[in-house]
Write a structure and sequence with these properties.
The chain is mainly α. The protein has helices spanning 59-88, 92-121, 168-190, 194-211, 214-257, 262-289, 298-325, 327-347, 356-372, 383-407, 415-443, 486-489, 539-542, 544-556, 572-580, and strands at 2-4, 11-16, 473-474, 524-530, 562-566. The protein has a 5-stranded mixed sheet, covered by helices on one side. Helix 1 packs antiparallel against helix 2 and helix 7 (298-325) runs parallel beside helix 10 (383-407). The longest helix is centred in the middle third of the chain and has 44 residues, at 214-257. It is globular. Residues 157-166 have a biased composition (Pro residues). Residues 19-42 have a biased composition (Gly residues). The chain crosses the membrane at residues 93-118, 300-321, 328-348, 360-377, 389-407, 419-442. Residues 1-13 have a biased composition (Low complexity). It is found in: Cell membrane; Membrane.
């Protein structure tokens, strides 16, 4: 089967191999798996490793979702309450701006959420000549059948098994149920509750993954991870379109009026907590979805919330102080900073989306995030880029606060109060940097970043993490399959706790053939796309056609299938050698 990304035009081929037997067709690109005579991959090969069980949905996961719902409701309710208070006090200008920063971002997010629902719930197209079943195990590869509608694309829906035609009444019942679901979802999104529905659905799927049988547990866990990714993306977009400008607006009003109303403080605090929470939550869900990265602990997530809470607070207060005196220049500063940050992100050549224009829009949104806080968008060591960003941020905060201190209204604010405000900005930023160091020195998933690195294999007897999984193989949900060692390719069990040389001289006398065990693990779904590098989402998280097919195949298969992306690290000759010998 083959796939076409949602709205991207770039194609990806997907094929599902059988669970048992020998040579199972070919990889995209012509290289064949397995030898002749029905001999499958050996026990140590990537296709024969048993998939580890998915991480169990815990009570902490449930509490995290409930806290996220509490943050969402407190942020929205406090803003609406404050807007109503402005209206009752006939401060229509502040009422209009406050309400604008609530409704406009919410409408954008609801439209995007409903668009995702329409695509996920749309009835699949009837299979025609463009859809063909994958070749059975032990047969020659028939290739991926292309979609005749557009060159280079293909249908992604799996071919349904032949079944007796249902009774006419079943069609009417099914159509009535689908109509009810459409009406319910339309009503939910019209009431601006799409995020609430997705949070509750995530909670339901997570609990189901604990209560169901083993196979259905994996299926519900897959769906829960997909739903968590969706709500994380939606809420991150909403917070920086709504909470960030709302925070700066309310702080500016407080500075101008030289007075802090209880509702203003509540709204600003809720917006600040929402911003810090969503950055940490997004990073946690992203790491949980990536098998090639260690998951983030809840201690690390809490410390990351404190890190962003204090740095964003210092940034927002500096913005509000400067905007209370220089309204026009503040707008020029924000636009200039956004343009510079967006250009910096584009120059880094990110790879998050499935098309060029989606990538540009994504970079523009990340440019908005960079106005307030650090957000990693490129693979590799980020300490250099982070140091550059926080140096620029520190200089900007000092300049904005210093200009306000030079030109603020002495009659409205005393010198002592002004000095206290300056100290609050500097101490808040220092606290944020302190928690950042705590996170990277003690709670980073990969270990201490500023201490000795343990990611490479540098010891005679290295830990098991020394021999890492390949980047192009994902198992349920999703979990990686280990690479074969040199000894395992010769039929000898390898030592995974030792460093294996990359190049070995083969003996002149061929070793005694060792009978290979038949493949008893689940099927493998091959995706003809290179795997995106962290911190990008995997293609099966952002390409919804690919996601639908994986869920359908995973649900219909008796064993949990594994995902394998196209490897870009080896040349074609090496790939053919590894898959045929």
């Amino acid at each position: 089967m083959a796939a076409k990304s949602d709205g991207a035009g770039a194609a990806s081929a997907v094929r599902m191999e059988g669970a048992e037997g020998g040579g199972a067709g070919s990889l995209p690109g012509g290289s064949r798996r397995g030898g002749g005579g029905g001999a499958g991959p050996g026990p140590g090969s990537p296709l024969a490793a048993a998939p580890p069980a998915p991480r169990a949905y815990s009570l902490l996961d449930c509490c995290w979702v409930l806290c996220a719902l509490l943050v969402f409701f407190s942020d929205g309710a406090s803003d609406l309450w404050l807007a109503a208070d402005y209206y009752l006090r006939r401060q229509f200008w502040w009422f209009g701006l406050t309400l604008l920063f609530v409704l406009l971002p919410s409408l954008v997010v609801q439209l995007l959420s409903f668009r995702w629902f329409v695509y996920d719930y749309a009835a699949p197209r009837a299979p025609g000549p463009a859809a063909a079943p994958a070749p059975a195990a032990g047969t020659k590869d028939s290739g991926c059948t292309k979609d005749s509608g557009r060159p280079g694309s293909a249908l992604l829906s799996p071919p349904p098994a032949r079944a007796p035609a249902p009774a006419p009444g079943a069609y009417r019942t099914r159509g009535c149920c689908r109509l009810c679901v459409w009406i319910l979802q339309s009503l939910i999104h019209l009431l601006q509750l799409g995020q609430v529905w997705r949070y509750l659905r995530t909670l339901y799927l997570g609990l189901q993954s604990r209560w169901q049988s083993e196979h259905r547990q994996r299926h519900f866990y897959w769906r829960m991870m997909f739903e968590s990714a969706d709500i994380s993306m939606l809420r991150l977009l909403e917070t920086f379109l709504k909470s960030a400008p709302q925070l700066v607006l309310q702080l500016s009003i407080m500075v101008q009026q030289n007075n802090i109303e209880p509702l203003q403080g509540l709204s600003a605090s809720a917006s600040l907590v929402s911003l810090a929470w969503m950055i940490a939550s997004y990073q946690k869900v992203l790491r949980d979805s990536r098998e090639d990265k260690m998951p983030m602990s809840y201690k690390g997530a809490v410390v990351q919330i404190l890190w962003h809470l204090f740095t964003i607070a210092a940034r927002a207060i500096a913005f509000a102080l400067f905007a209370s005196v220089f309204q026009l220049y503040f707008g020029i500063f924000i636009v200039t900073h956004w343009c510079i940050m967006t250009f910096w992100i584009i120059q880094g050549e990110t790879d998050f989306c499935m098309s060029k224009w989606e990538e540009i829009i994504y970079n523009m949104v990340v440019g908005i995030i960079y106005i307030f806080c650090w957000f990693n968008v490129k693979e590799g060591r980020s300490r250099g880029r982070m140091a550059i960003y926080y140096t620029i941020t520190l200089a900007e905060n000092a300049a904005l606060t210093g200009l306000w201190y030079m030109y603020y209204d002495r009659q409205a604010t005393s010198d002592f109060d002004a000095l206290i405000i300056v100290c609050v900005v500097s101490s808040s930023f220092a606290l944020g940097i302190f928690f950042m160091f705590i996170y990277y020195c003690l709670l980073h998933p990969n270990g201490p970043v500023f201490g000795p690195q343990t990611t490479g294999c540098i010891f005679k007897k290295a830990p098991a993490a020394c021999v890492g999984p390949p980047e192009d193989v994902i198992t349920s949900p999703p979990r990686s399959l280990p690479r074969t060692t040199g000894g395992e390719r010769e039929g000898v069990p390898g030592d995974r706790d030792s460093c294996v040389p990359v190049f070995q001289v083969r003996p002149s006398v061929p070793p005694t053939p060792v009978a290979r065990a038949p493949r008893t693990e689940g099927p493998v779904i091959r995706i003809d796309l290179p795997r995106k590098k962290y911190p990008a989402w995997d293609a099966h998280f952002i390409d919804r056609r690919l996601r639908k097919t994986i869920l359908a195949l995973e649900y219909s298969s008796p064993a949990t299938p594994r995902l394998q992306y196209r490897s870009m690290g080896a040349s074609q000759e090496v790939l053919e050698y590894e898959t045929t010998v």
